[in-house]
Amino acid sequence: MPERVTVYFDYICPYSWRAAEVLELVAEPLGLTVTWEHFSLYQHSYELNGADRGGNGRWQLWNEPIDELDGNGCKGLLPFLASQAARRQGPEAHHGFRLALQRAVHRDYRSLDMATILAVADEVGLHKPRFEDDLANPECRTVLAQEHTRAAALDLFGTPTVVFPGGEAAYFRLQELPRSREEAVSLFQETRGLLERYPYLQTVRRPRGKGN
Description:
Elements (H helix, E strand, L loop, with lengths): L2 E7 L4 H17 L1 E7 L2 H9 L27 H11 L3 H16 L7 H10 L4 H8 L2 H15 L8 E3 L5 E3 L9 H17 L15
Parallel strand pairs: 1-2
Antiparallel strand pairs: 1-3, 3-4
Helix pairs in contact: 1-4, 1-8, 3-4, 3-6, 3-7, 4-5
C-alpha cells in the first residue's frame, strides 16, 4: 500500500515549487501518494501580526475580490481558487494543473494573472467551460478557508511544510533542485530518516553567505 505524504503549500512560494519537483521525482520509486493542501502565507502573516487592515474587522483572504490583471495572483487567492476548480475535475487533472502552474510562475517566470491561469488550464487539457464556472463558484472560497484553517491548527509557519508517512513534519526549503532522480530520492530518504531518528531536532538552518 502506498505511503502518504502531505504537503502544505502556497502557489506564490518558489520553495513550494522546488518541493513539488522533488516529490515528482521520488513519488513513484518510493511508492508515495502525495496530498497537496493550501496554506496562505498572506493570511498567516495577517494572523501572526494581528494587523487590522482597513478597520473593517478581521481580514480574510478568501473574502477578497479578484483583480484579473493582478500579476501576483491577488496575494495567492487567484491560484488557490483555480486549484480548487481544477480539483473538481479529478485528482489527475488537479495534479497536472498544480504542477504546470507552479512551473509557469517559478520556472518560466510568467505573470500569475488570469491569462496565465486560463492558458495553463488549456495546456493541461482541463474542460474549459467547467473550469471557468468552478473558478467563480463561492464554494471554492469556502474550501480554501477550511484547508487553511486545518493547516493553521497544526502551527505551521511556512511553506512548503512536508508531513512524512510517519507523521514527522518539516519546513522544506531548497535553494536549488537536485541534479538527478537518484539525488532527489537520497535527499528525501535522508531527510525523513533524520526526523525519525531525532524527533527532538527542531531547527537546522545554514547561515547565508554574502551574495546569496
